[in-house]
Amino acid sequence: MKAPDFDYLRPANLDAALAMLAEHDGNAVPLAGGQSLMPMMNFRVAAPEVLIDLADVAELRGITRNGDHVRIGAMTRYVQLSKDPIILADVPLIGMALPHIAHDAIRNRGTIGGSLALADPAAEMPALMLALDAAIEVVGANGTRLIKADNFFLSYFETVLEKDELITAVVIPTASNTQSFGFCELTQRHGDYALAGVAVSRTDAKYRIAFFGVADRAVRVAALEDTVGDDLEKALAHLDEIEFTDDGKANAATRQRLAGVALTRALEEMTS
Amino acid sequence: MTGPAHIFDKPNRYIGKSSPRADAARLLQGRGKFVDDVTLPRMVHAAFLRSPFAHATITAIDTAEAKDAPGVIAIYTGHDLTDHVTPYVGVLTHLKGLRSAPQHPLAVDVARWQGEPVVMVIATSRALAEDACELVEVDYEELPAVVDTETALDADTPVIHPEFGNNLAWERDVVAGDIDAAFAASGVQVIDREFRFGRHTGVTLESRGTLCDFDPSENELTVYYSGQAPHMMQVIFATHLDLPEENVRVISNDVGGSFGIKIHTYGDEIATAAAAKLLKRPVKFIADRFESFVTDIHARDHVIKARIGVTNDGDIVGIDLDDLTGVGPFSMYPRTSAIECNQILNLTGAPYNLDNYRAKGRVVFQNKTLMCQYRGVGHPIAMAVADGLLDDAARAIGMDPVAVRHLNLMADDSYPRASATGMKLDDLSHQKALTKLTDIMDYKGLREKQTEDRKNGIYRGIGFVSMVEVTNPSPMFYGVGGASIASQDGATVRLDAGGALHVASSITEQGQGTNAILAQIAAGVFGVALNRVKVTTGDTKTTPYGGGTWASRGAGIGGEAMLQAAQALKDQVLAVAAVMLQTSADKLDIQDGAVTDPDGTLRLPLADLARTVYYRGNELPNDLNPELIATRHYRVTDFPFVFTNGAMAAHVEVDTATGFIKVLHFWAVEDCGRVINPLLVDEQIRGGVVQGIGGALYEECQYSEDGQMLNATMADYMVPMASEMPDITVAHIETPTKTSVLGAKGAGEAGTGGAPAAILNAVNDALSPLNASIWQMPMTPERVLNAIDAAK
Question: Which of A174, B68, B566, B730 could form a disulfide with B526 if both were Cys (CB 3.0 to 4.6 A apart)?
Answer without folding.
Answer: B566
